[in-house]
Every structure is written in C-alpha cells, then in structure tokens.
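Quick one, probably user error.
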C-alpha cells in the first residue's frame, strides 16, 4: 500500500450508503488519505419504455438529488476525518460501470460501497451494483453494512484463512490498519474432508493434496497469529470442517463480527470448482461489512 491511501467512496443517498459512511469510522482507515466521493445519477441507454418511465417517475426525482447528496457525504466524512484530502465527483450512467471506470483511471487502494443502492429497477436489470464492483474491481472493495454496536464492546474482525495468497493479503491488510485498543480478531479456516471417489488413484492424489493443504494452512495460521498479536490485537482461531461460505457468515453472526476480511481468490481452480467463489458469496450474504482484499 502506498504512503497515502486512496479511497473511492460510492454514494447515492440511500440508507445503505449512509451506513457505509458510518462504517468507515470502524474500518481502521489512516488519518491521512486521498478520498474521492462519487455520486452517480443513474440513466438508461437506450431510453426506457413507457412502462419503465411510469414505474420510475418517482424514483427519478429522488435520484436527481444524488449530486447534492454527494456533497453532503463529503461534509460528513470531513467531520469524521478532518485530515483527509476530500473531493467530490458527479457522474451520470450505470453506477457499477461508472465506479469501475473511475477506479481503473484513478487506481484507488479501496472502494467503499453500500450493500444495496437506491434503484430497484437497476438491480432488477443489472444485478447488485456492489456485487459487480466486487467481481470486477482491480483493488480491494469494502461492502459496508451498518451495525448497532453495544456500548463498551470491542471491535471484532473476522479473517478467512484458506492458505491462499489472497487470505494472506487479508491478514496483512488488517495488520496495516489502525485499530482501537482491545480489538479482537478471529482467524477462521474451513477444513476439507475427502469426498468419495471411485478411482483409487484419484482418491490417493486428493488425500495427499488435502494433507499438504492442511499443513500449509496450519503454518499460515501460526504466522498470522504472530503478525496480529505483534500489532497488539487479541487473536483467536477457529478451524472447523464446514463449507467456507456458510462457516464465515454463520460465525460472523454468532460472534458479532463488525467486518469479515477475505481474499478475492481462494487457493486455486480445485477450490473454486468444489465450493465456488467464497468472497463474492460472503459479500452478498453476510450480515456485517465485508472487505474483499486484493493484493
């Protein structure tokens, strides 16, 4: 990460966008950063049908407020982070496409976005803006969700560790950030069990691979514990035989995690073949904020 962190903040005035601003207070972000707040007025190309115009008339009037709301978002962030270099950018178009284009040119370290935006019509036709950004951005993405924090409770961060370079990057990202005293970190690993295979050769090869992966992950967990403890964080480890997507989301809810950190990619093609994309599934399903880390 560069000396001055570059953060791209997507803002559309929705409740989720407001929660994302509030969530930035507990994201461990540095005192000095270059921050671009982007307000996007969603437009249709080609022009919408009469049905879409009728259904979207009220919505369109609200979306016109996005440009001024981006300014308000910047004011809120200045109150939280007075040392930040803040700018506001106003654009028109498809929100996800606009954000990705700006990110490709400006090259931020982190994109912060709410879990859902204002436009139900846009979600219906284009899918979730946050999910598209998570999939296609070349930098880390924080899908922020608001949470009610009980007084005097420590900040809790959950990190998914699977032995991949991505999960190692997630650990390193947490180490770089600034956290309050008594912040707790839980390292979570979903272990593999060997599926039944009819070929003895295939079963042997898979069993050998699993044993090597387990040993490598044990080493990574130990190294991660040492790094995080040296940062003054309180660290615990959970290793459980369960589907990673399910384990990360359920453990985050049980433990009361404020954010889940996961690598953008897992250990390789075999993992993705068996369990799919863990990072995108967790970003979509978790009840807390999720930061998908790209090195």
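Nope, works fine. Designed sequence:
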């Amino acid at each position: 990460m560069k000396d001055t962190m570059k953060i791209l903040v997507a803002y559309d005035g929705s409740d989720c966008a407001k929660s994302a601003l509030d969530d930035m207070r507990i994201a461990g972000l540095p005192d000095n950063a270059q921050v671009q707040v982007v307000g996007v007025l969603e437009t249709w190309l080609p022009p919408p049908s009469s049905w879409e115009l009728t259904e979207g008339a009220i919505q369109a009037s609200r979306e016109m407020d996005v440009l001024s709301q981006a300014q308000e978002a910047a004011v809120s962030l200045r109150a939280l982070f007075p040392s930040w270099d803040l700018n506001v950018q106003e654009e028109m178009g498809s929100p996800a496409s606009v954000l990705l284009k700006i990110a490709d040119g400006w090259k931020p370290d982190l994109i912060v976005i709410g879990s859902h935006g204002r436009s139900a019509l846009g979600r219906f036709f284009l899918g979730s803006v946050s999910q598209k950004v998570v999939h296609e951005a070349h930098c880390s993405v924080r899908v922020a969700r608001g949470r009610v924090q009980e007084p005097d409770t420590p900040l809790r961060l959950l990190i998914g560790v699977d032995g991949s370079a991505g999960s190692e990057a997630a650990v390193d990202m947490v180490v770089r950030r600034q956290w309050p005293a008594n912040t707790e970190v839980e390292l979570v690993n979903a272990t593999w069990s060997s599926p039944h295979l009819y070929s003895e050769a295939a079963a042997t090869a898979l069993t050998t691979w699993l044993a090597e992966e387990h040993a490598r992950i044990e080493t990574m967990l130990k190294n991660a514990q040492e790094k995080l403890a040296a940062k003054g964080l309180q660290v615990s480890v959970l290793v459980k035989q369960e589907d990673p997507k399910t384990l990360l989301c359920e453990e985050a809810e049980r433990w009361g995690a404020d954010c889940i950190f996961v690598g953008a990619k897992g250990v390789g093609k075999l993992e993705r073949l068996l369990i799919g994309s863990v990072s995108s599934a967790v970003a979509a399903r978790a009840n807390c904020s999720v930061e998908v880390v790209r090195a």
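The longest strand covers residues 33-42.
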